[in-house]
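Module 6 notes. Inverse folding takes a fixed backbone as the condition and produces residue identities as the prediction. Think of it as a translation problem where the source language is geometry and the target language is the twenty amino acids. Below is one complete input and output pair. Work through it position by position during the lab.
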């Protein structure tokens, strides 16, 4: 995944816009760059990407029931893309279970609460990636969802731009 730090690459978004969208975080945040870039061009936003692979965005100690909370990594160790390559006609066997999609729910909620306190819009992409029960699809139509065991494929993220736009509209971000 390319590392984006600073204004969107090549000045493709509106660098003088009063509306600024900041993409902040690690490689899991950076994977949303293509969809946000597309929306920034459409709405005339300035897109600033402050992302770096393996970057811990905050020094947060999570406490649950008066003890340090350390959730185990339950995401399947098998790479869904590698699985799909070895079983192209049996993709259902490659789908990670949706119950394993959130690695650390306590830390995730702490991050969401912090963003809300800062007045930032928070978008939960889980419904676009996994149904409420069963497996998370490896491919939708002819588009792979993942590029490796924990990152979305750029083409899938770009395909989600209209869905992201709807969510941002609901939150009053798009202005239309």
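Target side of the pair, the amino acids:
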């Amino acid at each position: 995944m390319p590392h984006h730090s600073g204004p969107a690459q090549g000045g493709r978004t509106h660098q003088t816009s009063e509306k600024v969208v900041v993409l902040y975080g690690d490689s899991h945040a950076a994977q949303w760059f293509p969809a946000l870039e597309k929306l920034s061009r459409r709405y005339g936003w300035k897109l600033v990407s402050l992302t770096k692979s393996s970057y811990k965005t905050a020094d947060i100690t999570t406490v649950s029931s008066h003890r340090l909370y350390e959730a185990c990594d339950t995401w399947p160790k098998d790479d869904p893309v590698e699985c799909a390559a070895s079983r192209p006609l049996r993709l259902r066997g490659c789908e990670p279970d949706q119950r394993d999609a959130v690695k650390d729910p306590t830390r995730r909620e702490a991050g969401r609460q912090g963003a809300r306190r800062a007045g930032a819009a928070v978008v939960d992409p889980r419904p676009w990636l996994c149904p409420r029960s069963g497996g998370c699809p490896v491919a939708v139509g002819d588009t792979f969802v993942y590029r490796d065991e924990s990152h979305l494929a750029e083409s899938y993220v770009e395909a989600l731009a209209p869905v992201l736009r709807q969510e941002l509209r609901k939150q009053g971000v798009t202005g239309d």
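Reference fact for the lab report: DSSP finds seven helices and seven strands in the chain.
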